[in-house]
Amino acid sequence: MDLTFTAYPIVGATFVLYIGIAIWAKAGSTGEFYVAGKGVNPIANGMATAADWMSAASFISMAGLIAFLGYDASVYLMGWTGGYVLLALLLAPYLRKFGKFTVPEFIGDRFYSKPARVIAVIALIVASVTYVIGQMKGIGVAFSRFLETSYEVGLFAGMGIVFFYAVIGGMKGITYTQIAQYCVMIFAYTIPAVFISLAITGNPLPQLGLGSTVMDGGYVLETLDNILVDLGFSQYTMMKGTTLNMFFLTMSLMIGTAGLPHVIVRFFTVPRVRDARLSAGWALVFIAILYTTAPAVGAMSFYNLINTVQPGEIGAEEGNLAYENVPNWFSRWEETGLLGFDDKNNDGRIQYYNDGNEAFADTAAEYGWNGNELTVDRDIMVMANPEIAQLPNWVIALTVAGGLAAALSTAAGLLMAISSAVSHDLIKGVINPGISERGELRAARIAMAGAILVAGYLGLNPPGFAAQVVALAFGLAASSLFPVLMLGIFSRRMNSAGAIAGMLSGLSFTLIYVFVYKGWFFVPGTNMLPDTPEYWLMGIGPQSIGAVGAIINVVIATLVSRATAPPPADIQELVESIRVPRAS
Amino acid sequence: MASGNQEAAMAYWKENVRLLITLLIIWFAVSFGLGILLAPVLNNIAIAGYPLGFWFAQQGAIYAFIVIIFTYVFKMNALDRKYDLHEE
Questions:
Q1: pTM beyond 0.80, yes or no
Q2: A240 touches chain B (CB under 8 A)
Q3: Sequence-ordered alpha helix ranges (H) in B2-87
Q4: Do A241 and A183 have their domain in common?
């Protein structure tokens, strides 16, 4: 059966489900709109947080990233999960005790300063807007690739559905749709993974399959290491970058994860402090189901792909697959452009190898190979999985619905963070403090609608630098928000001058470092140094610099606060009160 | 707040910070230690088909993070009660 024909009812059914939830979960007050009335069960919130967190990139691209980077992709696996330890131990319970609506609100109150609140709003908006562009693109691409609509129509459909549940239900609507979206995406991810693991290793659990043996008896990883070396690549399980850069990149991603406002605010929605702690644990369990499966999906589908094009001995002519014999899934993905074949040596067979490796060039020439002939988009490692495992079309359709669920849930969470920063922190907090409850609820809905339109516009006209800026979102959150939130809780002495100086110095250091290598405001050609490891400061890349920015933030904030007057007595009491769970 | 309560809150906070430091050392050790810094050495040891350093970086660290958070949850719940600072 035709894929589009199967995909429509399944994607349509998930959309109807989301709309149904939206109608059921209408927000009646600002408390419901901003924090779902603080009534979300901690396990349910864990699921919603997992959906909020796992974006289109986690769902569609991460396994492919792991396949091509091998061990080096561990930075993403550890970075995007280890941040939850920081969040659970250092932020979530205390911010929940504080008990208000937004992250900038905490910064404004704790540092008794409107400028501090406004700086936090700016950092939040820059980080969240850059992040949301990727989600909008993910929605458009998923529609155009699998439902045969144009990119624009797909994007409008996605905007429409988010508009419906986010404007009506606010955080309440978003929370319950995220729970549904988590279920859709985790089924869509794990079912094909189980089958591919069974097909390749005979072990149904992908996490164990990755440590098992393939049909000819060698271990999956060992076999992959050997084939890759024979094709001129580095070993899969070996480090290719530098230890120092890996260290700082992992640290930046962890701190950034813990500092991203759309994630933090999810812990404002549970009833009690101890629910916030518990909920962070559940969130990580739900995230880990996908994150521990992804390495298996990456390695096994990569192994399968190489085995398909190189079924025989490397170097022997008949060792390579003849193009006329490619399997069905190969032809189908070739049509979408995710796989590309260019018969450079005109032998009618597919050669996949590392033609960038000079040490391997002679060997390749001996084999009669004239350059790598197969181009592979990394997204195929997830999207083609169901077909490679010979699963029916509805499973492929489920994968499409899963990718859309991942993009929609993250987009909604980000839009929530943006719109509440505008309506609660800027309008109610700074511009018009006397606004009524009803007035603020209306403002919140308008801000949400506005944020969706802006995100849609940016999705239609993505700035060329969008891909690079996502890394910046983590750098910004790591260098500006996380340190002051933590200091605000753990240092009673931290005052407003310290917090502002810390945020500004961490933020500007990180921005300038990124601009030096990526171009000022990402304008191509304006970079002052080439973005290659030999020019990086001590070998630390611009993506990894957030952790250094965070250290600078903490040092400057501490020095400035020691040199200025301590915070007023009522602020010190506030710090005491957020440190204990019981209300006094 | 009565001074007895304040003392309890101070002692509670001290124990909390000590627990945090212990757990963060473990957090650092399993990810940055075993998964990155010691990974090249650990990769010489294989458990089933997994080189050990690679396993920590792509599987083990994540499982350890979960254990760390739930340990924190249970220890803190006990601490809340010990100092009578728990919620209703």
A1: yes
A2: no
A3: 3-28, 39-42, 52-55, 61-82
A4: yes
